[in-house]
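Working notes for the structural subgroup meeting. M.R. asked for a predicted model of this chain before we commit to crystallization trials. I am recording the input and output together here so anyone reviewing the notebook later can reproduce the run.

Input as submitted:
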Amino acid sequence: MRSPLPLTATAALLAFILTSSPSCALTGGPPPAAPATTAPLYSVVKDGNGVWWFQGPDGSRFYSLGVNNIEPEPSIPPRPGSDYYNPVPTEFKGDTDAWASFVRNFLTELGFNTVGAWSSTVLPTNERFVATPILYVVLHDDTRCLAPLQPDFESFVLQNVKDSFAKLPGREGLLGVFLDNEMPWFGKTGFHYIPTYTLLELAFELPTDDARHKAALEFLQSRHGSVESLAAAYGQPVHSWDDVTVKLLRGSTSREAATDREQFTAMLAERFFEVSSRIVRQELPGVLILGPRFPGDAPDTVIRAAGKYCDVISVNDYRFAPEADENTLARFWLLGGRPLMHTDFSFRARANASGNLNTFGVGPVFDTQADRAAAYAALVSDTATVPYVIGSHWFGFADQSPQGRFDGEDGNYGIVDIHNEPYPEMVAAMKATNASVPALHASTRRVMPTELRPRMAASYSPGQHPERPPTLGLIGDWVGPPETWAAPDAKMSWEMTAGELVLKYEAGTQYGAGISLFGPKANAIGHGRSLATDLDGYASILIDVTAPKGLQLNIVVAEAGSGTIWTPRFDTSAGDDGEAFTSIPIFGDGVRTTHRLPIDGLLLQQFHGNQAGARRIDMQAVRNIGVVVSGVPEAGTVVVHRLELVR
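Returned structure, recorded in token form:
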């Protein structure tokens, strides 16, 4: 078992974080200086119009157009009896180099100039067809964001970097490297913010003799000094440091607890990016560091740390709408101050030559290949007009197995099918679009946001309905029976008792469980989607509830046309735009408590509903209002005595 990080080291690193003040709006200055080298180097530059580019060794500027996952066969063994892309034994008579030459010629003909992530090293690269491998500097463990707490962290990173470089064929055509892919900086995942399940709680889930657990405890000791101080700050009964457990932390909702979580994440991010970037520059001087491929989101402190040490910030963002995610891109730019690449996106179609059912995977599913091709053209063209985006990388080269790859994904993601036959519509769209990108980028005058937009903020202006009562009850007389849903490790059931809603739940450790309540029959609007009700005219949502102490509750509002974020076209026939919203968290007190939540304080729900809507809460066309539970206690009962809309 590894020894703990000394308290003095933890405290010193924390002090460095607390006294550092990285700007929230950097201007994209140079990264820390790399050691001198005579090898040809790529760089990132800004032209006279404020537009960013990659620049090659010969001084030419370019926009990176790439394809991910270019491999002659699955890198992880496929499921027995499955069909999959494997053309070398048949079409190329066992000659992998012949396949590689075919792929390069095919892709360069389509205007691609970059070999994206997870691609074979046999592909011939040069200054016009460059490579961007992933190093995985802390390997693949779900707890890898805690790796900076290990006492041998630097030697661990150094060995991983050396091992990764040893697999690369050479420097020729190496544009830059990614440090990792979709690291879980939020704690449980890389994309789902759970206020009481962060990296701090993740560390405390480890055995008490684990170096990372010990370092996390020492972090709290350095912050609070004494058990009594921690107990006062967290509002929890803590009699000794042994009482500080993951359950106690997950039940702590004070401002001081939230600050500890934020600073703990900041400490880890600072050390991760400083050490990993320094070692990469030491081992392969002059190679660009392209970031860790964020999964569309990350804590602010992590984005700032990435901007301090990386040359480029990369963002994976599976857009359901074929247009640039302007607000997300602006946020990464304003926080990180580095040019961006959109490093993972794709569209699928039901009609495909591989037999893909698209049962599992991310991204929208269109009807036809023509729809899919049009989405590529629209998204890449629009993204190219963002002045600080310098690359777009499509996933991937070939379709996945129709029986599902190693993890079950069975998507029509390819430019070619599993038989190595190109999709004509995709080929035509990619060739035409890619040819237009340099001019679109060079001539853009697009004005992007210059201030950080409050995360997921929304607007609301209630209509005037003087005929409606001052309160509208939402328990009973529904237009349809309630629906329950839950994370894979959670459960939810309900019953009515004496006019009150009784919820039996198991919250699990992911995103919890919920119940969706439809509006009263008297408020049915009679047009648009079924179950839609008009609940306009009210200012607040009131919930009178008895919930276990510390349990997190959120109120959610889904507009009539809402659906999963992968819905290709949201139904707007009821007069809304298909968005969904959530309240700030409220927490159980163990006794009956009334909370009044202003509707204009709701935030856009990140993982349900139309993410490209107007961010306007359309209460005149509501599908459901729901209650979500998460956190601890992980099992119990919630009684909703009243749930009402209030003027």
